[in-house]
Design a protein that fits this description.
By secondary structure, this protein is an alpha+beta fold. The structure holds adenosine monophosphate (AMP). The site of adenosine monophosphate has 18 residues, from strand 6, strand 10, strand 11 and helix 12.
Length: 437
Amino acid sequence: MNSSERLQAVKGMNDLLPPASAKWAHVERRAREVFEAHGYREIRTPIVEYTPLFVRSIGEATDVVEKEMYTFADRDQRSLTLRPEATAGVVRAYLEHSLPMKEPVTRWWCAGPMFRHERAQKGRYRQFYQMDVEAFGVAEPTIDAEQIALLHELFSGLGIAGIDTVVNSVGGPEDRPRYRDALLAWFQPRAAELCEDCRRRLTTNPLRILDCKQDADKAVVREAPSVLEHLGDPARAHFAGVQAALDALGVPYRVDPRLVRGLDYYTGTTFEVRGTGGELGTQNALGGGGRYDQLVAEMGGPPTPAIGFAFGVERVIMALPGADEDFEAAPDVFLAAHGEAARLACLRLARTLRAAGLRVDLEHRTTSIKAQLKRADRSRARAVAILGEAELAAETAQLKDLSSGEQRAVPQAELAAAVRGMAAAPSRRHGRAEPEV
Ligand code: AMP
């Protein structure tokens, strides 16, 4: 690299800095709580896998495999791919660790970065974060509804407004040939209206035409035969079961037969939750997923019904109201030192207060007491405790409540309790431009 060239992150890949990271942490913490409240346990899989895993599971004719994967040869000349989604790796781990033999039902969640070489734009990145939920071993439609409800409740609990929950069934393998024939009968005479990719999809996988980014809004696609009219009895009964369970849970949703989703492994139920507010714009899909009852067997395991979803953390952050700063925890107390001896006393006292569970900040740089008080104020701490020579001798501190302005001497041994007893931190203040002292 030329030394005059500016160092830059890879296009479509972002740094996450404070205070934005605090909003992310809030979403991730909340999601973890909700997942675990539903019995899902965490797993972590590598971010790279051997390339055929994705080609086989996601499907050769999908956009993800055809155009978007980051694939490279490692030093042993094996083809590796940065994971574009989580399910393939999770299914591999499920089989590699013999889970089908160990437990009848496996419920896992995972989180981490995914990589797709897409056209980078607001809400669409080349490295993005997903949180992912997968359940293996349950064929009954109540778990489909429970996952949809989980996603809906997570988003509404976070305060996201305008949530739109869309469900569909793409049918099982027994329904596919029938629907494929119907799509071909519709699209073949109208092939001239389709994009080049979709004309190719007529021979590879006509279902993919329905979610083509270029053609999805064209009348030829909107008026295509509905998958719901081509479901056999089992798929129809299952989908009715999903809707009955959603109704029983009181989850608002609508059925959209165009919701086929971009990966080949889906069978039966598919769903997507969209946001209509915040900064989302056109990239409004917050999360989605569906059943993949064939995938485990296709990857060499026993026949195993499965269902899962992923949501995109960036999208959820965009939809979530509240300034980033509002998600940052301010210190409970800021320690200010008057003189060298007091600085060391503050350092020790900070350790004691932190061990008592408080968030404590102090000034390490040599600055005046005035500058320290200004920094304490800027830090939005609930209180400041000042130690000078007199306080050192008396083993006290001057504790000042930064919202009321009240100040009193408190024995150092009682400081933690005194801080804890104060009113909640003052409300957050934004847009303060004064330089740090
Ligand atoms: P998918 O794995 O394609 O079903 O996507 C699931 C969710 O991940 C979507 O609803 C988005 O919230 C998010 N997502 C997918 N692709 C991207 C991307 N390129 N950039 C940001 N978020 C994405």
